Amino acid sequence: MARKKSSTDAGVTGAAPAPKKKRWYHNLVEAYRMTRQVKPAIGWMMLGAAVGVMVLAIAIGLWVGHPIYLGLFGLTVAVLVAMSILAFHARRAGYAQIEGRPGAVGAVLGQIKRGWDIEQEPVAINPRTQDLVYRLVGRPGIVLISEGPPHRVQRMLKDEERKVSRVAPNVTVHRLQCGREEGQIPLPRLENRLRKLPRVLTNAEVTQVAKRLRALGAARMPIPKGVDPMRARPDRKGMRGR
Questions:
Q1: Any residues with CB less than 8 A from the CB of 212 and at least 6 apart, and which?
Q2: What are the TM regions of this chain, as residue ranges (predicted)?
């Protein structure tokens, strides 16, 4: 007969227990809790929207003579509406939690799925103040987005605009400042602001401009993925020309 494995035998192998896989409802609960910290009324908003959809669906069902069918359909729509409200406010709550931290703009840009060619790392950084400038290319043209106080980032934005204008002289360049001071764009509204920029390039032109700028970005100080911008330091050997 085969000997049963004891707890001692299991410990000898040294195999760590596999982490438990999170179910979808665990993620849902975590998103709700995070959102509730920023927007305490989120539960009532979801409930109100769901009840409103249900009442409307049942009313239409009574009017057309199919209350059960329309009620079931309304229940499905009510759940979808409630989840959409949660998803919208959960994203804004997430932005509110990271706002003001170095790299927050990069986190927002990482949520944009299509329509833009985005440099995942900052194209300019001030190691002393941790002010950053990000660059992306889309149909509105070239967009430079800064993190930091206006009196410090204006110079960085102008320097970057001069650099990209030498490579793409006929392309529109937008300079946006992300922050809470006057004239800046709050982090939760940044993505919406990008959508409102007028489109002036075709998709083919976007690809061509992005290739030119990618070569320009490779020539400047690199910031490897995963490196904390707070700890970034200039390459002193490179500065001495070695």
A1: 167, 168
A2: 41-62, 68-88
* Per-residue tokens: 60: 């239409």
Residue 133: φ, ψ to 5°: -130, 125
Contact 87, 39 (CB under 8 A): no
Spatial separation of the C-alpha atoms in residues 27 and 190, rounded to whole Å: 25
Range list of H helices, the chain: 7-13, 24-38, 42-64, 67-98, 104-109, 150-167, 190-196, 203-218, 236-239
pLDDT-derived band at 114, boundaries 50, 70, 90: confident
Nearest 10 degrees: Cα torsion 106, 124, 133, 108 = 0
* Residue ranges covered by each domain of the chain: 23-98, 104-223
Kindly state the tokens that stand for 2.
């085969």
Whole-structure pTM over 0.90, yes or no? no
Q: Could you give the CA distance from residue 179 to residue 188 in angstroms, rounded to a whole number? A: 10
Query: What is the pLDDT, as a whole number, of residue 145?
Result: 93
Find the distance separating the first CA and the last CA of the chain, reported in whole Å. Answer: 71
